[in-house]
Amino acid sequence: MRTGLYPGTFDPVTEGHLDIFRRACSLVDRLVIGVAINRDKGPLFTLEERVAMVESTCGGIAKDLGVEIVVHPFENLLIQCAQDVGATVIIRGLRAVADFEYEYQMVGMNRAMNDDIETVFLMADAEYQSIASKLVKEICRLDGDISKFVPAEVATALKAKYAK
Ligand code: ADP
């Protein structure tokens, strides 16, 4: 039974994340999606809102692919969270070169803390590769069409946030 941990802020979850959920399911028997509290990043959505959006959008994937998906909020060290949930693999998505330097450092430091946990990088389908939560929020704030980037219920939640 192989458990993978896919951590992120998911503020909010996008089609890029969903594509990585699906791909990760082919590598593990149980996928834990770690939703980071990330107070420093000043998320738009509360932790509860982010968890609820991930839960409702990944339910269909778990059913279709026959993999158990668990959504797990966390505030502690990533490597500690991986140990807590029994993950032997950390899954990260890679987009452009810009992601690489940060991820490279993370792998090095996580490995220094626990060399038994491997990090695996996945790339989303070309259609979703350029999607970033930060840009989706900006487009929505400026009244652009975000329907290609996020599931319908996330688009509704985003529009409601900016309407306030
Ligand atoms: P972070 O705040 O750590 O960037 P995110 O919620 O933005 O977390 O993303 C979580 C993970 O998903 C990261 O590994 C990020 O690289 C990956 N990711 C986000 N969007 C995409 C995408 N469009 N394609 C592939 N990976 C992605």
Description:
The protein has a single domain (3-163), classed as HUPs (Rossmann fold), CATH 3.40.50. Helix content is 46%, strand content 18%. It is built from six helices and five strands, in the order βαβαβαβαβαα. The protein has helices at 15-25, 47-65, 78-85, 97-113, 133-141, 152-163; strands spanning 3-8, 30-36, 68-74, 89-93, 118-122. It has a five-stranded parallel sheet with strand order 3-2-1-4-5, sandwiched between helices. Bound molecules: adenosine-5'-diphosphate. Adenosine-5'-diphosphate is lined by residues 8-10, 14, 16-17, 20, 92-93, 95, 99, 124, 128-129, 131-133.
Question: Which short descriptors sum up this protein?
Answer:
five-stranded parallel sheet; 164 residues; 46% helix; alpha/beta; globular; binds adenosine-5'-diphosphate; single chain; Rossmann fold; 6 helices
In terms of structural class, how would the helical and strand content be classed?
Answer: alpha/beta
Unreliable segments (pLDDT under 50, ≥5 consecutive)? Answer: none
Largest sheet: 5 strands, parallel
Number of strands: 5
What is the CA-atom radius of gyration, in angstroms?
15 Å
Mean pLDDT: 95
Q: Provide the CATH superfamily.
A: HUPs
CATH topology: Rossmann fold
Q: Which strand order do you get reading across the main beta sheet?
A: 3-2-1-4-5
Q: What proportion strand?
A: 15-25%
Total helices: the number is 6
Shape: globular
